[in-house]
Write a structure and sequence with these properties.
mainly alpha, about 65% helix, disordered N terminus, binds benzoyl coenzyme A
Length: about 325
């Protein structure tokens, strides 16, 4: 796969012979599966790639709280409300681990958050879609967290130590989120009214394609994959993970008794995978360029939360400084 990406990737990758001594030692360390740690030498472009990916990932976690926050006050029971609040809190925690991992690379948290708030940083396309009914909370947990897990399990073995270690806890928690989402849907399908069952199908219809887009552009249009695979930041290509997600998810869909809005979805005996229809990449590109259904709403909510929380950050800093003085 790596050789194929070197051929199809947009940039030509250096061979070991073309590298200087420091870079060669770095690549050999990666090839030997030894983690890169914060204080080790690393090429500037490796550092930049990681800061880009980890900051985008952190932003996704905290923007990802917003579509769910929409349903806290309208959860159908106290139990569902508590579960949803716990999930949203977990996501805030994931953002914190990831921003901390990013800081070990020398990035400044305030600067990166400012890039998010001024529209200069990306975050996952999926969070620019609305959550219109209660079944969306189930479908987000099942499909969005489900896709996130498929993408993030291999990141537990990513070459940069602090990122890999942060992913271990994130994956455990995402697993719980995926199950609680699926349980919401299963409950609605088995015990709900006809209208509630229709809500489940409607949520799946709206979120299926956006969930597949979470894995990023197809391999031949993914400018970063070849180098990220060579550095073992990414362990699998976007298309490999997308296929893995579909193969895992369709049997679960069948247990629910629902369908996905893809007439071309079909089990392929020869490949041992599901074939699926064409993804609307125009839609994906529009969303990541800031023109999805909820991009403006999400960024406004983030900016307001940041401004309204300024006093909390100031108080926390003042408290930490006071404590430090008392110790000195
Ligand atoms: N949305 O060369 P490519 C979660 C961008 S789950 C927006 O393939 P790369 C959560 C990409 O950044 C979601 N942008 O890039 C779950 C690049 O742009 P730049 C977060 C996307 O980095 C539940 C360009 O397209 N997960 O947080 O090699 C509840 C070309 O793409 C998307 C992660 O972030 C997208 N879907 O591969 C709450 C996982 N896809 O930067 C929260 C870590 C691609 O060159 N990240 N782009 O301008 C990754 O694994 C990789 O960054 C990706 C993309 C597979 C996403």
């Amino acid at each position: 796969m790596y050789a194929q990406l070197v051929e199809t990737g947009t940039k030509k990758l250096k061979t070991l012979d073309e590298m200087g001594p420091e870079e060669r030692a770095f690549q050999e360390r990666i090839d030997a599966e030894i983690k890169i740690e914060a204080k080790n030498w690393m090429p500037d472009s490796y550092r930049k790639t990681l800061i880009r990916q980890i900051s985008q990932h952190a932003h996704s976690e905290i923007v990802g709280m917003l579509p769910e926050g929409n349903w806290v006050t309208r959860a159908p029971t106290l139990k569902r409300k508590l579960q949803l609040m716990a999930k949203i809190q977990d996501e805030a925690g994931h953002g914190l681990y990831l921003y901390s991992a990013m800081e070990t690379l020398g990035a400044d948290r305030d600067e990166e958050i400012d890039k998010l708030h001024t529209g200069r940083a990306k975050y996952s396309s999926i969070f620019n879609y609305p959550t219109l009914n209660w079944a969306d909370m189930g479908a987000v947990g099942w499909l969005v967290d489900g896709a996130a897990i498929v993408n993030q399990v291999p990141l537990q073995r990513t070459s940069y130590g602090p990122y890999a270690r942060a992913m271990i806890r994130v994956c455990k928690e995402e697993s719980f989120h995926q199950r609680q989402g699926y349980e919401i849907l299963l409950h609605m399908m088995r015990h709900g009214t006809e209208a509630q069952q229709e809500m489940v199908q409607d949520a799946i219809n709206r979120l299926w394609w956006p969930a597949l887009m979470m894995f990023g552009p197809s391999d031949e249009h993914s400018p970063n994959s070849a180098q990220s695979m060579a550095w073992k930041i990414k362990r699998h290509t976007n298309d490999e993970l997308r296929q893995r997600f579909i193969d895992q998810t369709i049997p679960q869909l069948e247990v629910l008794g629902c369908t996905v809005p893809d007439p071309d979805l079909k089990w392929n005996e020869e490949t041992g995978h599901y074939d699926f229809g064409e993804i609307q990449w125009d839609e994906f590109n529009r969303v990541i360029q800031g023109h999805g259904p909820c991009n403006t709403e999400r960024l406004n909510a983030r900016r307001n939360a940041h401004e309204n929380g300024a006093w909390v950050r100031a108080a926390a800093v003042a408290h930490a400084e006071k404590k430090q003085k008392a110790v000195a």
